[in-house]
Specification:
The chain has helices at residues 2-23, 59-64; strands at 24-38, 41-48, 51-57, 69-76, 79-84. By secondary structure, the protein is α+β, with helices and mostly antiparallel strands.
Length: 85
Amino acid sequence: MVTVLVFFVFIIRHSRQFFQQLARQRIGYCLLVEKYQHDSQYYLVFQQGEQEWRVTCPLEVYLKLQPPTRGELVLSKGEFYTFEE
């Protein structure tokens, strides 16, 4: 009985992680070209070839990054998730 219960907990936990990762969109290697603040929101502008993304980000990330910076951009449900240099 305990084994079956642990098995179901394991399945539920891993299925949640799987669906959260599906919601994340790995954009790939991008260039941070601009950052700006408007109405207490912090924005970063990324470019990859002809495409451009304008995303809001937390203050800590805004202060840490300085354009031009290259790195890997990941969005979650169309919003900023991570940017790793």
